[in-house]
Amino acid sequence: MTAPSFEEFLSLSVDLTAFEETVLLGTGLARDYLAKVQAACGDEVVTALLAAHRAARADAAVDAGGHDRALPYRTLPDRALLDRALRHRIFSDDRLGPVARNVIKLWYAGMWYALPPEWTDRYGAHAAGETSTVTAASYQEGLLWRAIGANPPGAKAPGYGSWAQPPRIEDRYLNGATK
Amino acid sequence: MTASTINNRDDLISYLHVALALEHATIPPYLTAYYSIRSTTNSDAAHIIRVVAVEEMLHLTLVANVLNAIGGKPDLNRPGFVPSYPAYLPDGENDFTVDLRPLSPEAVETFCKIERPGQAPSADARLVRTPDSGSPVLAFSPTAEGMRFYSIGEFYAEIIEGLGKVAADDPKLFSGDPDLQVGPEYFYSGGGAVIVVSDLDSACRALRFIAAQGEGLDSGIYDADGELAHYYRFRQLQLGRYYQVGDEPDAPSGPPLSVAWDDVYPVKVSARLADYPPGSELAGVARDFNAAYGAFLALLTKAFNGQPGLLQDAVCDMFRLRDGFNRLVRNPLPGSDGLHAAPTFEIPAAFGSDPEAAPAAGERTQGVTR
Predict the structure, then answer these.
(1) In a mutagenesis test of the A interface, which of B36, B276, B315, B316 is the best target, namely the one with the most A β-carbons within 10 Å?
(2) Can you tell me whether residue B365 is helix, strand or coil?
(3) What percent of chain A has pLDDT over 70?
(4) What is the C-alpha to C-alpha distance for residues B254 and B251, in angstroms, rounded to an integer?
(5) What is the pLDDT of residues A138-155, one digit of tens each?
(6) Is B243 exposed, middle or buried (0-12, 13-18, 19+ CB in 10 A)?
(7) Residue A74's domain spans which residues?
(8) 3-state class (DSSP) for residue B330
């Protein structure tokens, strides 16, 4: 079995987190995170997750191509088609769904959370699967701080008095809401 | 003794604009080396570079104070204020190249040259002809065409002498608005106390402070306050040992320090926007950084023109720039053999003429390149 591809893990992470690739690489932790998921779940599961992601992307591309325009979801925008395919191929899958949710939490919080016992009973437990931080830097690089326009408390000092200013959240993450 | 190249207030103002650009020009190279260091590694090197970079920011502020004191108008958005890297600085008869480099022995060698004590062998040798084919040198004479200075120290010596000469002829030289001065209440944790300039004495003190802090001219490796000159701070990285009081210049005897040259992101040397894949997400991030930096310089310009309170906002901008810098250097630059991205400091032209019309930091300004 070939080792899970870093590029594919990055592509999966872009779709799971809704952050751009440059932001994910900009944490400096993408390779550490892939290694953590491999250690916690095993390569077989990771490889299957990446394959399911490839398949979901392909489904969305086919649907966007409009082979069957009679289907009601054909009118959905590309992003919604991908969303639908990800739910179908990954999130509703008993084995891959919990791992994908954990990858999201990993990027947002910088923590690996132990998978539920139902999952480990069925698919196997790994010593590295316990709840743990990945590196000393992962807390402050958590995407959640970027998402809410705040600095991680106790790290990445934003400057005296900056707390008096409203958070700066990039427009593309506001989902139509006004600042 | 050659004739002074400074004869009146306008000459002085021209020189101080060059000095302002010169002080700023050292900051991007220091920051590039500093932010190339992987987090949690190289704390000795990071600390040394950071201290010097922050003191260059003090120098920039001191030059602005001198310029304001004689009725000039600091402008950090002038075309060409941020040099195109590689830039060139004088090193005696020759020039040397200042690149934007990751922390490396080459980078430290450049930093030592930037800060090296350099005194012309005679007063006649202070000015050196710029080679015709040469690239623009940062410590040039704005009044004697085709001439640049033997060293940064000689450049400041010329300004200090010029100030004395013009002040003797023109008792109203220091008639700038005192409200434009940036005082200690606006400038904190910045590598020394800021000097408010109101007369010849305080102007000369401010400029001598700049020269002494960088090069340790006349004062040995430690200055009167017991502070190690920048040149010797960097020498510590080359010699692998800290100085302590009483040491000879080439023989530090303090605790050893080590540099892990490999714990560094291998950023592309003096990267340009043209090195980024056109239209890529990463190119957009690099352009955004340049736009944010241009907006930051516009904010500093306002702070130096009557709104010193804005320096507090500028500090918050600096932290945002830090985060942007970190994101860029952690991204590999596609097509560059594993080298990483870094800010290019190509400031969009929108900031050149009218700072009011410039977009705010962090806004997308794709397509607005020089």
Answers:
(1) B316
(2) coil
(3) 91
(4) 9
(5) 999 999 999 988 889 888
(6) buried
(7) 6-173
(8) coil
Q: Which residues of B touch A (CB under 8 A)?
A: 38-40, 281-282, 285, 312, 315-316, 318-320, 323, 326-328, 330-332, 362
Give me A61's structure tokens. Answer: 């591309």
Evaluate whether residue A178 is within a structural domain.
no
pLDDT tens column, A32-89: 999 999 999 999 999 999 999 999 999 998 877 765 555 655 566 788 999 999 999 9
- CA nearest to B204, candidates B170, B171, B157: B157
C-alpha–C-alpha distance, residues B10 and B179, integer Å: 21
In a domain, A139, yes or no: yes
Q: Are B6 and B18 in contact (CB under 8 A)?
A: no
The reply to whether residue A156 touches residue B331, judged by beta carbons under 8 angstroms, is no
**Is residue A40, in this structure, part of any structural domain at all?**
yes
Does B355 score more than 70 pLDDT? no
> pLDDT tens-digit profile of B131-177?
765 667 888 899 998 898 988 889 999 999 999 999 999 999 999 99
A-chain CB neighbours of B319 within 8 Å are: 156-159, 162
Q: What is the pLDDT of residue A107?
A: 98
Nearest C-alpha neighbor of B191 from the set B246, B228, B138? B228
A127 touching chain B per CB within 8 A: no
Cβ-in-10-Å burial (0-12, 13-18, 19+) of A71 comes to exposed
A52 located within any domain: yes
Q: What is the pLDDT of residues B295-353, one digit of tens each?
A: 999 999 999 999 999 999 999 999 999 999 999 999 999 999 999 999 999 999 876 44
What residues does B147 pair with on adjacent strands?
B129
According to the model, what pLDDT value does residue A100 have? 98
Residue B118 has pLDDT above 80, yes or no: no
Given this model, what pLDDT does residue B260 score?
97
Q: What is the dihedral of CA B357, B363, B367, B370, to 10 degrees?
A: 60
- For every residue of B53-115, DSSP letters joined together read HHHHHHHHHHHHHHHHHTT----TTSTTSSPPSSEEEEETTEEEEE----SSHHHHHHHHHHH
A83 in helix, strand or coil? helix
The answer to whether the CB atoms of A26 and B281 lie below 8 A apart is: no
Global pTM reads 0.90
DSSP string for B101-154: --SSHHHHHHHHHHH-----SSGGGSEEEPPTTPPPBSSB-SSSTTEEESSHHH
* Of B281, B285, B315, Cβ closest to residue A159: B315
Q: Is the pLDDT of residue B45 over 50?
A: yes
A22 closest CB neighbour out of B285, B312, B320: B285
Report chain A residues whose CB lies below 8 A from the CB of B38: 28
Look at chain A and report how many structural domains it folds into: 1
Q: How confident is the model at residue B359 (pLDDT cuts 50, 70, 90)?
A: very low
